[in-house]
Amino acid sequence: MIDQQTIEQALDQALDGVDLPFLGERTRGKVRDIYRHDDQLILITTDRLSAFDRILGLVPFKGQVLNQLAAFWFEETRDIIGNHLIATPDPNVTVAQACEPLPVEVIVRGYISGVTKTALWYQYSQGKRTIYGMDFPDGLSKNDPLPEPIITPTTKATDGGHDERITSAQVVEMGLVEPARWEQICQAALAVFARGQAIARQAGLILVDTKYEFGVTPAGETVLIDEVHTPDSSRFWIAETYESRRAAGQEPENFDKEFIRLYYAAHGYRGDGDPFPLPPELAVQAAQRYIGAYERLTGREFQPGETPAAERIERNLRAWVDDKVTG
What we know:
The protein is of the alpha+beta class and about 325 residues long.
């Protein structure tokens, strides 16, 4: 893995965004800058880090890790359900089939954990025993495994709002997703999660929970979109120390951004109002975790892309557009 000094030196070159007028109008998401090109989407994954539905700061190499790791997982789960990936013309860029995104985030949980207001443990710790339409017994402790993975949907936040908890029954009742498609999505989500847990286990990690997004192609096919099993959309614990730390009442060692959520929560921030800036030392630690997760899960050494990333991305996308025109 690249050393800490290299990451520290990259702090000033972290990618906040790319403005490419030759691609048309840009849509700026929490983490990705998105362009529409014919029937395809160009998704540029930046180094922006979000938590509590807010942008906290920039983490060097994070965008490249997310983009390349998502491409790895799309390939690893293609036999379970199709996805939107077409090409990766740059380490930070995915060219994807344009789909109609479904207005539900599909959260799959294998453990009772989390500090955000939509997290299972947060609700349970507030005394609730019926959560997401499911009943939970007394006596559970934070970070305990669930008998089997469960699906806990949320709405998709818009205009800076927060995701809201709903039940699977409400997804159908509210007309957010038609019944047959929702059943297909739930089956696929649990199967993809099981595949993720198996590969993570081989890497010495525990896939704790994750977020999936699904879309519908112009042909009506349900596909995975956005990203899969990255440190942004998922939580990973180190398997070797999980049992001993849980027995000692300690938080599991993680390979994701949960430690940043815990840091902000410990300093009184859980998503209300503007967050305080991400401290540089946390950004470096986050980069180390993201890169470490990529290398463990894929079995590949992380190779940082050429910097400045914005110039490289523009050059590679201009070449991609030219190839489309001449090809």
